[in-house]
Specification:
Length: 443
């Protein structure tokens, strides 16, 4: 079977590499010449553990190839996966331009019947539209069916998530399409959920929005914990023993970021509104997350009165550890605020600095180790729980900073230990215990 994957971002490239790893012949198509050249050399254009090994393996064994020439690639394809981005439009709806560009290229190129499989996260009804669109635009007399096969991988664990997925969702309108996808995924040996296209599209949004809802819920509980004297970590733990609740996505912090939750919550909310229905839970999820991003900076403003002239260490820039992705990272609006308020910002991130520099070429001093960021700082913010950051002993903050004051958006440290060491430590959903010399409880 000749498989082609359109788009070599997190979804497309990981899909292509994993399909090839399991023995399929795969051609990856992209419009970016630099990316294609890198991949041909076995270099991954994105940071994703394990991916480069799979690229090299597939390329060396002749099962994985990369090309700019979409016409040639699509011409005789049996199956074409679409894994291009569906970013957010200004109004919150999903931008489907890239998906439609690929659909048009497919329509003008395919010379035999094929199955187009949409992996990109697309609003409910898009698969139907794409099938219709390809039918209208087809240059040759061919039959092209569209199937939905949403992706559930998380960045940083994408290869692992794909090779041992919790489930594979297949949305089809014919037995023929079902059989093709069953044949492709047989060797993955994972549970299959076979449904129609619209349900498959909805499964993806409902899954992401539910996870985002869990995070916003625990963040609200955390905020209330701070007011009423409870500890959100203990609360999450206590809840997690109930298997109906589970222990995942109950970690309070400065809100979710990344290329998926923010856009997928807004897109579903928009889609509901467009259909005359208000998704109240999703609306609340978005609102809570917007406010959560600025909880720490508000606390810092209260504590220091003004941030102007303060040297501020920013530890962690990416939206989560294990990725160089900065999309919707809480660090971005926070650093903007710090700069606007006249603070001197010194930033450290083990992987994300180069990308951050593109967003903030000026106004931030970048360092390549956390100690340099902490040296002589008046306060420190922790925005990402990288191991390189979590493992900094609290005694180093005490030794290096002008005054050891931490605002931790990821609850990396023990509150009591911080107080014992003499660090003023503010976190999320836990009572700050001020070290003795600050005099008492900082609640
Ligand atoms: C997310 C989903 O987890 C994947 O299942 C999905 O396939 C993917 O979106 C997608 O649609 O492509 P991802 O965005 O890579 O994956 O990252 P997550 O690990 O889900 O984290 C998202 C954000 O939530 C991060 O900012 C993280 O710090 C935050 N988070 C996560 C919390 O604040 N608390 C938690 O308990 C868990």
């Amino acid at each position: 079977m000749k498989i082609v994957v359109a788009g070599t971002g997190y979804v497309g490239l990981v899909t292509g590499a994993c399909l090839s790893h399991l023995g399929h012949n795969v051609t990856c198509v992209d419009i970016d010449e630099n990316k294609i050249e890198l991949m041909k050399k076995g270099i991954s254009p994105i940071y994703e553990p394990g991916l480069e090994e799979l690229l090299k393996e597939g390329y060396e064994q002749g099962r994985l190839s990369f090309t700019l020439d979409y016409k040639e690639a699509y011409k005789n394809a049996d199956v074409i996966f679409i894994g291009v981005g569906t970013p957010e439009k200004e109004d919150g709806s999903a931008n489907l331009d890239y998906v439609f560009i690929v659909a048009e290229q497919i329509a003008e190129s395919v010379e035999k019947d094929c199955l187009v499989v949409i992996k990109s996260t697309v609003p409910i009804g898009t698969n139907d539209e794409i099938e219709e669109f390809i039918k209208e635009k087809s240059t040759h007399k061919v039959s092209v069916e569209v199937a939905s096969n949403p992706e559930f991988l998380a960045q940083g664990t994408a290869v692992k998530d794909t090779l041992s997925a919790s489930r594979i969702v297949i949305g089809v309108e014919s037995k023929k399409a079902e059989k093709t996808l069953r044949d492709i995924y047989e060797r993955f040996n994972q549970p299959l959920v076979i449904t129609n296209r619209r349900s498959a599209e909805m499964i993806k949004y409902a899954s992401n929005d539910f996870l985002a809802l869990k995070i916003s819920f625990i963040n609200e509980i955390a905020n209330l914990c701070e007011i009423v004297g409870a500890n959100v970590e203990d609360v999450s733990k206590g809840m997690s023993f109930d298997s109906r609740i589970g222990d995942k996505f109950l970690k309070a912090g400065i809100g979710y970021g990344g290329s998926c939750f923010p856009k997928d919550t807004k897109a579903l909310h928009w889609l509901a509104e467009d259909n005359g229905y208000e998704l109240k839970t999703v609306k609340a999820t978005i609102e809570v997350n917007e406010n959560q991003k600025f909880r720490l900076v508000k606390k810092a403003r209260k504590r220091f009165k003004r941030l102007r002239g303060l040297r501020i260490a920013v530890l962690g820039l990416t939206f989560k550890p294990g990725t160089d992705d900065l999309r919707e990272a809480p660090s971005i609006p926070n650093v903007k605020v710090l700069i606007n308020e006249g603070a001197e910002v010194v930033a450290y991130d083990p992987i994300g600095v180069n990308n951050f520099k593109k967003l903030f070429p000026q106004g931030v001093h970048y360092v390549d180790n956390p100690e340099s960021a902490l040296k002589d700082a008046d306060l420190a913010f922790i925005f990402t729980e990288w191991n390189e950051i979590k493992s900094i002993p609290l005694t180093r903050y005490k030794a290096l900073m002008k005054q050891a004051v931490i605002f931790d958006g990821r609850n990396c440290y023990d509150v009591k230990e911080a107080a014992e060491i003499g660090v003023e430590y503010h976190s999320v959903g836990r009572q700050a215990i001020l070290p003795d010399f600050f005099g008492g409880d900082a609640k």
